[in-house]
Write a structure and sequence with these properties.
0% strand, single chain, mainly alpha, 158 residues, 7 helices
Length: 158
Amino acid sequence: MIGRTRKATGFWALLVFLSLIIPVSVVAWTASWASTLQEEEIPGAAAAAGVMVLVFLVFFLVIYAYFAICLQTIAKKTNTPNGWWGWIPILNIILMLNIARKPIWWIVLLLIPFVNIVIAIIVWMAIAEARGKPSWWGILMIVPFLNFIVPGYLAFSD
């Protein structure tokens, strides 16, 4: 029993040591790397970073607009009021819950890690059923790249 306690204590001591030393070493490496960049002054680095941020921002806005249009169209086809809520960040979740005919307090469940995945699947399954489609279309929302196709299918199909 004593040997097991010493092993467990050693494990926790090692874990604490690593949790303290790794962030310190990462910060030190980052600081030395940043000072190297300042000394060398890579031409065009700021412009390249600005272009990357701009491309990411445009990409994000296009995806956000696509999902908002899909939610608004789904709301219109299911006769759910306030379809314009699809454009407002928190209200679009409430709109999804209204389309799925789920209680509004489920928004709290969407804030809990891992539970939110299950609840989101249930909500999308109910949205698919509200559109008259099979509920397995909601399960496809967890599949990468298909999660871009499912809202469009639910919104723009007959």
